[in-house]
Amino acid sequence: MQQKDSELAVLAEKLTERDAKHNQYAELFEVIKPNDIIHGGESIDKENVTIIDTLKSENNDKEHNIEDLKERIEVMTKNVERLNDELISTNIENNVLQDKFDNLNEEYNKLVQRWLRKVQKEADEMNENVENLK
């Protein structure tokens, strides 16, 4: 029985300590309502409430502006990606056309060289014929 009394005494002491700690920190967990706002120990007057409301409104406007700017950035990012894709495809097309141009230019130069050789051969034959006639 004495053991139960000592256990109860210890339990009562622990509960007392817990209540004391709870009371020390109780004000940290109080919920403050907007109408109960205290500034320097005095209630906020209507002018300060108006200022607070104005600041809240401006804050909301700024948040909407931020969201709008985020949307614009997203659209611009998509546009940049699209333009990059178009630039890449245009570069590929340019490379293909440049290769085709180079091939045609090389073929043209070969044809000109063949034609010049043919004309030179004909001129040499004509000169030879003229010399043989003399």
TrEMBL record:
One Pfam family from the record: ATG16
Coiled-coil intervals: 52-125
Membrane topology: Peripheral membrane protein
CDD domains assigned: Atg16_CCD
GO terms for biological process, alphabetical: autophagy
Highest taxon of source: Eukaryota
Keywords of this entry: Autophagy, Coiled coil
GO cellular component terms attached to this protein's record: phagophore assembly site membrane
Autophagy-related protein domain: residues covered: 4-127
UniProt keyword annotation of Aminoacyl-tRNA synthetase present: no
InterPro entries: Autophagy-rel_prot_16_dom
Localisation per UniProt entry: Preautophagosomal structure membrane
Family designation: Belongs to the ATG16 family.
Protein name, UniProt field: Autophagy protein 16, interacts with Atg12p-Atg5p
Species in which this protein is naturally found: Maudiozyma exigua (Yeast)
